[in-house]
Amino acid sequence: MQKVLYALIPGILLSSYYFGAGILVNCILATIFALVFEPLILKVRQQAIAPVIKDGSAIITALLFALTISPYTPWWVTLAGIAFAIIVAKHLFGGLGNNPFNPAMAGYIFVLLSFPVQMAYWPDLSGLTDQALTTGQNISIIFSGLPSKPDAISGATPLSNMKVELGLMTMVSEIKDNPLYALVGGKGWEWIALAYLAGGLFLLFNKVIRWHIPAAVLGSIFLLGSVFNIVDSDVYPSALFHIFTGGTMLCAFFIATDPASSSTTVTGKIIYGIGVGVFIYIIRTWGSYPDGIAFSILIMNGLVPLIDYYTRPRALGEK
The pTM is what? Predict the structure, then answer.
């Protein structure tokens, strides 16, 4: 767990650089809430508190949740999401190792469906709005709410802008002229993705995770994105756009690889990762949401028992 925390640091720092201090505030708040709810539910379950707190799983859940929500998200939304993640998605299923669904993504889906308006505002990285927000202003937004004219400090994310413009029959080449986009992905999002890639490689090098799931997630997205981009590049963005925009890298190395809710067999990990990547692309391209990571993770979490059943290795001597 400590190595996972170390691997997240570059992504957290770059996210804070591009999106403001709200990212750090969200991470701190989510961690505090997780460390409050974890011992409370353990006490209710009459379980030992110290060993569970020390394993660091609650902190990882809190950080992954905080990194997927907007830095303008109100504090009480973070509170609700962490409460659902820790109490419902984790402990009502028996605690760490028994939870079938990724707690962070379950908490994210809960607040996304419950408070869609509060989750919709993101800083505008295109440079078309005033982004000179101080740390105090970021904290004020989280605890007091957005100003009366939120469009003055917020804008569409590259994924949401791409989906809206494609719905208006605008060609990809025209959409990419928007200053919201950089070389292959969203402005700023490319560097954040590279930071998570570096953290993921650190985990692979230290054998904290195995290569099967990240390779399957990224490979399936790259393959689907390349095929459809070749078919019609005016309608389907490039595969690199999907990989270096949004939370794809965070998903591939930190979310999809959750050992408690992902497949446990070698073949199963590959099938699981491919499924996550395929559903991400399908939801982004034809679904109602601009980024389908959380939905994809939960769908494949539900299929893990079936995948493991049919991909379990044979015991020595078994016919």
Answer: 0.91
